[in-house]
Amino acid sequence: MLLRGIVVFTVGVCLFGGIAAAEPARDAILADYLNQARQADPGFTAFSAERGEALFKARHAHNPDVPSCTTCHTEDPTRQGRHYKTGRAIEPVAVSRNPERFTDATEVEKRFSRDCKNVLGRLCTAVEKGDYVTFMMSR
Amino acid sequence: MRPILTTALAAALLGTTVARADDTAPVTHEPTRKECGECHMAFQPAFLPARSWTAMMAGLADHFGEDASLPEDTARSIRDYLTANAGDRVSGKLARKYMRWVAPDGAPQRITENPAFVKEHRFRDEVWKLPQVGAKSNCPACHKQAELGLYDDD
């Protein structure tokens, strides 16, 4: 399975170039969040990069060690981040700097649930996740 | 696929270094490399006994204060890899050096508290606080080839 995935992905990259091949997967992830957002609120229209930026930069009281997404991802998403405790480098989260961002749905969901629980003390909503991805796509 | 190729290439280039006493086999199990290499480097299984890995894999929801939980089948496959290659299951000088300090029924969760580690890492506090280091667990900050299991690099 994994091997086949890699082969398919590699062929995809060869055919379309890394950036172009990565987009449909990201669009599908966003479309899924949009569906969920509309199920919760039929009047919901569109994600917002501004709201995503506010979520990214907000400081929360839940966990004093990690008050914000920026604690590990840094204030500037085009820069390399750092895990606040282990020192491990984290690749930039802005799509312009890192075209593979938000293209693996399982990985994205796993990290949203871990990181939102860690920083906010709760899961992020579909709107928050869509806003966050939209903000990172604008950077 | 690429990491394995890189490892093989590095091993070929480094030749004798790989066989040196204090080195250990790199992590070759892809799910372990990926899932256990996100927040810190994926530590080689030989640093802890199988009991430690079993206990750690059973408590990922609260892993040193963070949620590192995984789907059950992924967790099982990682646990199987880590325990099969644990310090009390493989031979090698590094494994022996670390296992010497583990009580027969002990299941330590930290590599960095093992006396074998402490002895080799008596640095001033400022060293650990350097921005490029940050934590004892950040092995690659000082050992450029830590991910390849090579620590004898001074």
Features:
A: mainly alpha, Cytochrome Bc1 Complex, Chain D, domain 2, 6 helices, B: 154 residues, mainly alpha, 0% strand
What is the structure about, briefly put?
The complex is a heterodimer of chains A (139) and B (154). Chain A has 139 residues and is mainly alpha-helical.
Walk me through what this model shows:
- The complex is a heterodimer of chains A (139) and B (154).
- With 139 residues, chain A is an all-alpha fold.
- Chain A has 6 helices and 2 strands.
- Chain A has one domain (2-137): Cytochrome Bc1 Complex, Chain D, domain 2 (Orthogonal Bundle).
- Chain A has a two-stranded antiparallel sheet.
- In chain A, helix 1 crosses helix 2 (18-40), helix 2 (18-40) runs antiparallel to helix 6 and helix 3 crosses helix 6 (126-137).
- The longest helix of chain A has 23 residues, at 18-40.
- The relative contact order of chain A is 0.18.
- Chain B has 154 residues and is mainly α.
- Chain B has one domain (25-148).
- Mean pLDDT of chain B is 87; it is low at 1-19.
- Chain B has helices at residues 2-14, 30-35, 50-57, 72-84, 93-99, 115-120, 125-129.
- The A-B interface holds A 2-3, 6, 65, 82-83, 85-88, 113-114, 117-118 and B 1, 30, 38-41, 64-69, 132-135, 137-138, 141.
The string of secondary-structure elements of chain B, in order, is HHHHHHH
Termini gap of chain B: 29 Å
CA(first)-CA(last) distance of chain A: 33 Å
Give the strand order, joined by hyphens, for the main sheet of chain A: 1-2
Strand element count of chain B: 0
Indicate the CATH architecture of chain A.
Answer: Orthogonal Bundle
Low-confidence stretches of chain A: 1-21
Instruction: Summarize the helix and strand pattern of chain A as letters.
Output: HHHHEEHH
Shape of chain A: globular
Helices and strands in order, then pairings?
The complex is a heterodimer of chains A (139) and B (154).
Chain A: H1 2-16, H2 18-40, H3 49-57, H4 70-73, E1 81-82, E2 89-90, H5 105-120, H6 126-137
Antiparallel strand pairs in A: 1-2
Chain B: H1 2-14, H2 30-35, H3 50-57, H4 72-84, H5 93-99, H6 115-120, H7 125-129
